[in-house]
Write a structure and sequence with these properties.
Radius of gyration: 28 Å
Shape: globular
Order of helices and strands: HHEHEEHEHEHEHHHHHHHHHHHHHH
Strand order of the largest sheet: 2-3-1-4-5-6
Structural class: mainly alpha
Number of strands: 6
Largest sheet: 6 strands, mixed
Length: 582
């Protein structure tokens, strides 16, 4: 029965490929011809594959290369915290080809393009994230790949670097993933949690006990079992869907080429360039704040370790009170310093973005577009000169689009590019404008009023320590509550208890500090997400709406576009049926 279904879908896919070729053959466009040549090369390459191919994809430094090194036990594969993969590399594993792709969260567009191309060519995809989970950008990227590009049927999710956090957080990791993959389930994507580096370390470990502990920590045997099941269950689906993915990708490219006239293409290109600047700036802010927050977490844990080490059987009770005040001040200072660093990051990055957006007006494309219109009309509108607003109202619609392209967002960016004298001068040059006030408000997200260490919602997570914390409630009280196991054991020790109880209390207190540090980290990252949503995400939404509006206006007038859109719907339909029935 499965074989009958497979043959049926093969015939349907061949018909889709035939219809695609027939539609595009009637299009007279050099770029479309180039795209079709590339398409034929990819389709041919895909049909000539002998082995099943699995591409490892995802953000940079998620550990894709490390996982492949662990699977193949190839210690020559370069791994590390920075970008280590800048090309596509294939490795043999049993009867399967593992494809290592560049990360898709970098500033290097060619890396992303390489990774995306091999997502189409690969039979199956393993999407790798860390225990940090899906931030907004990674989540959008995943949804686009899985659902918009119909690759979900051939995808598996692997969460790597579990040793960086306590496995007690697994439920939280799973809940975060569920939000991104809904309405699909964890089982649909065979979500697996591993630590590939621990497995590699185990391979080189001579001590059997330590080797075994690292193997358990890595969960790599469980991953291999899941991967084999994934291959068995989805291998056929992957082979079928790969051709559909390739057709879908090139169909999108050709739709983009024929959806607009030349002037609208230029406007779209300007919008795309602006979008790229906003996306890259968002990544930069996101990455830099994440780094500062992780440093803050580490420093808080260092402070806690220093504090815990001082609570011994020899310390006097009055000295413990002094240590409470000391650690409270240190954590406050660390949070304050981090807030100042983040403010500076936001200020400098937004300053840079403003300059880059302003600079778009000096590009040949922008000037060429204005020149094109000046040939057809007897005036040349100065888009930044208020006295020409009446002329602009009379200008062709497409020219009005040029005027909109730098400031389409509303409250976020609308005044960043309206004053010609401010070009290149950054935020200070925008003093008094709505945009400047907006940026200052955002920059102050992490100012003096932001005190993540005061979050009392951690009470529920601290057990008995939480009872102490809920009673005291001051900033010093947080430390008292967190350290309550150590306080109790110290008092017990003074009454004759043994050292073992003091040691156990140290461990419990360290865990409480870790909970507090994680809460501070979470609160700060939530503020970061709020910041990015208010500035970049709102702007990206407006840019995308404008691009889609431009495309839709022209697509309605094109029979070829209509045929391609119908074909696109057929691809989505058959992909869903393949996933449901095979």
């Amino acid at each position: 029965m499965e074989q009958v279904k497979y043959v049926k879908y093969v015939k349907e896919i061949e018909k889709i490929k035939e219809d695609f070729n027939n539609i595009v053959s009637g299009i007279s466009d050099k770029k479309c011809n180039t795209l079709m040549n590339d398409y034929m090369n990819d389709i041919t390459e895909n049909s000539e594959k002998d082995s099943l191919e699995i591409a490892f994809i995802g953000q940079y430094s998620a550990g894709k290369s490390t996982i492949i090194a662990a699977l193949t036990e190839n210690m020559d594969i370069e791994i590390g915290q920075n970008i280590t993969t800048d090309k596509v590399t294939e490795y043999k594993w049993n009867n399967v080809i593992l494809v290592d792709t560049p990360g898709i969260g970098t500033e290097q567009k060619e890396h992303t393009d390489l990774a995306y191309r091999h997502m189409d060519l690969a039979d199956l995809l393993v999407y790798v994230v860390t225990t940090q989970g899906f931030d907004d950008l990674i989540a959008k990227d995943f949804k686009r790949i899985a659902f918009e590009h119909n690759k979900a049927p051939k995808m598996m999710i692997v969460v790597n670097k579990t040793s960086l956090e306590s496995m007690e957080n697994k439920v939280n990791w799973e809940n975060d993933i569920k939000k991104v993959i809904s309405p699909s389930t964890l089982e649909d994507f065979k979500v697996t949690f591993i630590d590939a580096k621990s497995y590699l370390d185990a391979l080189e470990m001579s001590d059997k006990e330590l080797k075994g502990a690292l193997m358990v920590l890595s969960n790599f045997d469980g991953f291999i079992s899941q991967l084999n099941d994934f291959i068995k269950e989805k291998g056929i689906i992957g082979r079928l869907v790969s051709d559909l993915n390739i057709v879908g990708t090139y169909l999108d490219g050709i739709l983009n080429e024929i959806s607009t006239d030349e002037d609208r293409k230029k406007i779209q290109e300007l919008l795309v360039r602006k979008k790229f600047l906003v996306v890259e700036n968002r990544k930069n802010i996101d990455r830099k704040i994440e780094r500062e927050v992780q440093n803050l977490y580490t420093e808080i844990m260092n402070v806690s370790n220093e504090f815990i080490s001082k609570i011994t059987s020899n310390i006097k009770s009055n000295e413990i009170s002094d240590e409470f005040e000391n650690i409270k001040d240190k954590v406050e200072t660390l949070c304050s310093n981090t807030g100042e660093k983040i403010e500076e990051i936001v200020d400098l990055e937004l300053d840079s973005l403003i300059k880059q957006i302003n600079a778009l007006e000096n590009t040949p494309l922008y000037k060429e577009l204005l020149n094109d219109f000046s040939k057809d009309i007897d005036f040349n509108v100065n888009l930044k000169d208020k006295q020409d607003l009446e002329k602009l109202k009379k200008a062709p619609d497409a020219l009005k689009d040029v005027g909109k392209f730098l400031g389409i967002a509303g409250n976020g960016f609308k005044n960043w590019c309206v004053n010609a004298e401010s070009i290149g001068k950054g935020l200070k040059a925008l003093s008094g404008s709505d945009a400047h006030k907006f940026v200052l408000d955002v920059g102050h997200f992490f100012g003096k009023k932001f005190k993540p260490y005061e979050a009392l919602k951690i009470v529920d997570k601290l057990g008995k320590a939480g009872e102490v914390l809920s009673k005291v409630g001051s900033k010093v009280g947080i430390v008292v509550g967190i350290a309550s196991p150590l306080i109790a054991s110290y008092e017990e020790y003074q009454e004759g208890a043994n050292e073992k109880r003091l040691l156990e209390a140290r461990t419990e207190t360290r865990n409480n500090f870790r909970t507090w540090a994680n809460e501070i980290k979470s609160n700060t990252l939530n503020k970061k997400d709020e910041l990015l949503a208010k500035i970049h995400d709102k702007e990206l939404e407006n840019i995308n709406n404008r691009i889609n509006s431009l495309r839709n206006e022209e697509m309605l007038q094109s029979e070829q576009s209509k045929s391609l859109l119908e074909l696109q719907n057929r691809i989505g339909s058959i992909t869903k049926r393949i996933n449901a029935n095979l």
